[in-house]
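Side project, low priority. Logging it here so it doesn't get lost.
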Amino acid sequence: MAISIKIAARDWDFLTPLLLGDVSSERLEVKVDRVATLLGDLSGDPVYDAAEMSFSRYASRRAAGDDTLVGVPNFIMRGFRHRCIITRAASPLEQLSQLAGKRIGLTGWRDSGNTWTRAALRHEGVGVEDAYWFAGRLTSDHPIVDRLDGFGRPGRIEAIPGERPMMELLETGELDAVFTPFMPQGYFQAGSQFRQLVRDFRTAELEYFRDVGYVPGMHLIALKADVVERHPWLPDELSALIDASHRLWTEKRRKYAETSPWIIDELLQSARALPQGWSDSGLAENRTMIEDFARELHLQGIADRLLSPEELFPFETKSRRTAA
């Protein structure tokens, strides 16, 4: 009889085959709830057995000795970050290196995506100490919450004064650039007064990939430790189902490419620019990326020590050792 679990995840299109039952397992039945916001604390949630989780927050829990969650190195959210830096259309800024000494807004200091974006800046010679950082809400539609998460430093990393929306400050020139994972309302309309800071961000991101060798992972899959204790095979089975769903989705998109006028061009460019296994899950497959992220957490002051991949994913290490 199959074990049934419930997982909370964002509405990623590559999960569609899993949602529809096009990929399945005789041992594991997965019920997916699509959520707009990640769970605050999976370990104490009465509904879910697993969830999409911020890599940064998972790493912080491991660093603090919290073993109530088992992280699976299946990075359900990956993406380059150059595209996530926006500025005014009339801004003279066009390169990451030009952000040295500038005022940068961001939606949360510890967010995995923003950690990777700062890593991209470091790659171009701009470290945390080389700019002025302001955390706040993107627009007036977003909630007022603590976005510094204890990492504020007067004169270097501060909250937006008066909780003013960052897009308003960008428009008036009080901010030079903003980090955002999702573009604000109206951004895609012709004549928008905002643009990506790096105009040809695809080329910049491809050069970054050639330097580092991976597409950064922001979110991973986490399971409650007691679920894994009862069913040690479950993390691998869940990861395999998500991978199978991603592969099937890719095959279908390549066949049914009329979902947007030029998605065929995007599919062709991605397939030819990136190696076939760029999105593979697993500790060995993602070791370099995991090591680099752990190093950034330490360099950026989010983690007080350098974490190893084995510390972050002890179950994965134990599982592979047992299988051998």
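Brief comment: The longest strand covers residues 69-78.
Revisit when time allows.
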